[in-house]
Design brief:
The complex is a heterodimer of chains A (about 280) and B (about 290). Chain A is mostly helical. Helix content of chain A is about 75%, strand content about 0%. Chain B has about 290 residues and is mostly helical. In chain B, about 70% of the residues lie in helices and about 0% in strands. Chain B is globular, with a radius of gyration of 23 Å. The chains are: A mainly alpha (about 280), B mainly alpha (about 290). Chains A and B meet through α1, α3, α4, α5 and α6 of A and α1, α3, α4, α5 and α6 of B.
Chain lengths: ~280, ~290
C-alpha cells in the first residue's frame, strides 16, 4: 500500500515538474521567437497589435533583402575572420597561462590570479579612449587585427580562470608518470593534460568565439570604414536608418544568432562539465 | 616539482603581453587623462589640471542617486539570477525524459548576442505595439504600463531583461556543481529523516558554495559594469536621464558630452567602488581560499 501511494505521489511530482519546466521554457524562449516573428512580417504589418507569432502573409522578403541588397556578406566575412582569430588566440593563450597558474609554483602566482580578476572590474569607459589612442599609435584603427587583439584581451581573464580550474581537477601524477618515461614538462602538458582538458578547451573556444562574434562597443570605436564592419556594426546600421528596416534588422539578428545558438546547443553538454570556475576540485 | 623561470615565462608571457597592452596600459593612461581637461575641443591641446575632475564627481548632484540605483540594480539582478538559476537547475537535475531539450532551450538567452536581446526587449516594452503590454491588456485585461515615462517602470524594464539574460549562467554552473555532489550524502540525510527543504539547505547549498561563490563574484562584476542593457533598453537613460547606473552615466559623459577628463576620473571612482566591494566580499566569504 505504502509503495503504491508513494508511486502516485512520484507521478504527481513528475507532472508538476514538467508543467513548471514547460512554463519557464516558454517564457524564456518567447523573446527569441518574437524576433523570428517580426522578421517574417510584411512591410504593412510591421506595427501590428496582434499577438500571433507567425504573422499573416508571412514572407521571407526581409531575409532576401538583408542577404542580397545589403553588405551582409562583407559583414559576415569580417565577423567570421574576427571570431575565429579570437578563438584561436584565446584558446592558445589561455590554455598556456591557465597551466602555469594551475601547475607551476612561482612568486606572485596568487597575485596574478587576483589581478586577472581585477581587470574584469575596469569599466569599459575607462579603457575605450586610451585603447583608441594606443591603437592609432600602432596604426591599428580601422583594422580587423586591432579588434581581434582587443577581444582576445576581453575574453582572456574568464578563459584563463576556466582553464586553471579544469587543470586543477586533473591529477598531477599522470604528467609525472609521463615525465619519468622521459618526456619534457612541456611535452607532458601537450600530450597528457591538454587532451584530458577537452571540455574546458571547448568552453574557452566558445567564449572567445562569442566575444568576437557579439561585441559592439569596442568595434564601434575602432572600426569606422564600412568595408570593415562586423555583423553587430552592420546590424546597428540597419536598425538606425529607417523605421521600415525593422523587419530587416530582425531578419539580420536571426541570421546572426543562428551560428552561436547552434554552437551552444551542440556544446551544452561541455558547458556543464567544462565550466569549473576558480580553483574548485570537481 | 621544480620549474625553471624560462618555462614559466613561456607559458605566461603571451597572455601578459596582450593583457598589458589592451588592459593595463589603457588603465594607466586613463589615470593620466583623469588629471587633464581633455574634451572634444581640447583633444590635442589639453592640459594637466590636477585632481579637479575628482572633485567634480562629488559635485554631481545625482551622484548618490545613481550610486543607489547601481546597488539596487546589482543586488536585485543577482538575487533573481541565483533564485531562478538554482531552482531551474534543481528541476533539471531530475531523471526526466527530454531534460536535454529543456536544458538546451533554457541556455539560449546566454547564447544570444547581448545587444540583440536588449533591443528585442526594448521593442517588447513599447507602449502601443510591445508584446508585454499586449499580453497584459489582451490576455490578462490589465491596464497597459507606460514603461519609459515612469522612473520606476523604466528601471524595472532593463532589470527584467537582465534577469532573463543572466540566469542561464548560474543555472549551468549549478548543474555542474549538482553533478559533483556525492549521492551518499543524500542517502545519509534520508536515513536521518531529513525533509527535502532541510536536505537543500544542509546538503545541496553548502556543497554548491565552492562553484557558486566565484560565479557570484563574476556576476557582481559583470552586472555592476553592464552598460549594454540599460543603455539600449531605456534608450540612453529614459526618462530624462533618470534611469542610469554609474557606468551608463559615465558612458554618456564620455561619449555623448565628450567630457573625457571627467569621464576618466569618474571611471576610476567606479572601479575603486567595485574593487573595495569585491575585495570585502572575498575576504568575508574567503571565496578565493581555494585558489591554491
Amino acid at each position: 500500500m505504502v509503495k503504491k501511494h508513494s508511486r502516485a505521489k512520484k507521478t504527481i511530482e513528475t507532472v508538476l515538474v514538467y508543467i513548471l519546466l514547460v512554463v519557464i521554457t516558454l517564457i524564456t524562449i518567447y523573446p527569441i521567437v518574437q524576433i523570428f516573428g517580426i522578421s517574417l512580417r510584411p512591410a504593412n504589418e510591421l506595427y501590428s497589435t496582434s499577438l500571433r507569432i507567425i504573422p499573416e502573409n508571412a514572407s521571407f522578403k526581409a531575409y532576401r533583402e538583408v542577404l542580397f541588397e545589403k553588405d551582409f556578406f562583407t559583414w559576415l566575412r569580417n565577423s567570421v575572420i574576427v571570431a575565429l582569430a579570437v578563438s584561436i588566440f584565446g584558446v592558445t593563450l589561455a590554455s598556456n597561462a591557465g597551466y602555469a597558474f594551475s601547475r607551476l609554483r612561482f612568486r606572485g602566482r596568487k597575485t596574478g590570479m587576483i589581478s586577472i580578476l581585477v581587470t574584469q572590474m575596469f569599466p569599459a569607459t575607462m579603457l575605450l579612449l586610451p585603447l583608441y589612442i594606443l591603437m592609432s599609435k600602432f596604426h591599428l584603427v580601422d583594422t580587423l587585427f586591432g579588434i581581434i587583439i582587443a577581444y582576445t584581451a576581453t575574453a582572456l581573464p574568464f578563459c584563463i580562470w576556466t582553464m586553471k580550474g579544469y587543470y586543477d581537477t586533473i591529477p598531477v601524477d599522470l604528467e609525472e608518470a609521463a615525465m619519468i618515461d622521459g618526456t619534457t614538462r612541456f611535452g607532458a602538458f601537450v600530450k597528457v593534460t591538454l587532451p584530458l582538458s577537452a571540455p574546458a578547451l571547448v568552453i574557452t573556444a566558445l567564449f572567445s568565439f562569442m566575444a568576437g562574434w557579439s561585441e559592439f562597443i569596442v568595434a564601434r570605436v575602432i572600426i569606422n570604414r564600412q568595408g570593415l564592419y562586423t555583423l553587430p556594426l552592420g546590424l546597428e546600421s540597419l536598425s538606425s536608418t529607417f523605421q521600415t528596416e525593422w523587419a530587416n534588422y530582425a531578419a539580420g539578428s536571426v541570421i546572426v544568432c543562428i551560428p552561436v545558438v547552434v554552437l551552444f546547443l551542440l556544446l551544452s553538454r561541455f558547458l556543464i562539465s567544462g565550466l569549473t570556475l576558480g580553483g574548485v576540485k570537481g | 616539482m621544480r620549474t625553471s623561470k624560462s618555462l614559466i615565462w613561456l607559458f605566461l608571457l603571451p597572455s601578459a603581453v596582450v593583457l598589458g597592452l589592451v588592459v593595463v596600459y589603457p588603465f594607466i593612461y586613463n589615470l593620466y587623462i583623469s588629471t587633464t581637461n581633455m574634451g572634444l575641443y581640447t583633444i590635442r591641446d589639453y592640459s594637466v589640471k590636477g585632481l579637479s575632475n575628482y572633485r567634480d564627481i562629488f559635485l554631481e548632484k545625482d551622484l548618490w542617486y545613481y550610486f543607489g540605483k547601481t546597488i539596487v540594480w546589482t543586488f536585485v539582478n543577482l538575487f533573481f539570477h541565483m533564485v531562478l538559476g538554482i531552482s531551474i537547475a534543481m528541476l533539471l537535475n531530475r531523471q526526466i525524459k527530454g531534460r536535454g531539450v529543456f536544458r538546451a532551450l533554457l541556455i539560449l538567452p546566454w547564447a544570444m548576442p547581448q545587444y540583440i536581446s536588449a533591443l528585442t526587449w526594448k521593442g517588447m516594452f513599447n507602449y502601443q505595439y510591445g508584446s508585454i503590454n499586449l499580453i497584459l491588456t489582451k490576455v490578462f485585461h490589465m491596464p497597459a504600463i507606460e514603461w519609459f515615462s515612469n522612473e520606476t517602470w523604466a528601471f524595472i524594464a532593463p532589470m527584467l531583461t537582465n534577469i532573463w539574460l543572466g540566469f542561464p549562467f548560474i543555472m549551468v554552473v549549478t548543474l555542474g556543481g549538482l553533478q559533483s555532489i556525492p549521492k551518499d550524502l543524500y542517502e545519509a540525510a534520508d536515513i536521518d529523516g531529513a525533509s527535502p527543504i532541510r536536505k537543500f539547505f544542509d546538503v545541496t547549498l553548502p556543497m554548491l558554495k565552492p562553484v557558486l561563490t566565484p560565479a557570484i563574484i563574476l556576476g557582481t562584476i559583470w552586472t555592476f559594469n553592464n552598460i549594454n542593457v540599460i543603455w539600449l533598453v531605456t534608450d540612453r537613460g529614459l526618462p530624462a536621464d533618470k534611469t542610469h547606473i554609474l557606468v551608463t552615466y559615465v558612458y554618456k559623459a564620455a561619449f555623448t558630452y565628450y567630457r573625457y577628463g571627467y569621464a576618466a576620473a569618474f571611471s576610476v571612482f567606479i572601479f575603486l567602488l567595485l574593487f573595495v566591494f569585491v575585495i570585502f566580499y572575498i575576504r568575508k566569504t574567503k571565496a578565493l581560499g581555494e585558489v591554491r
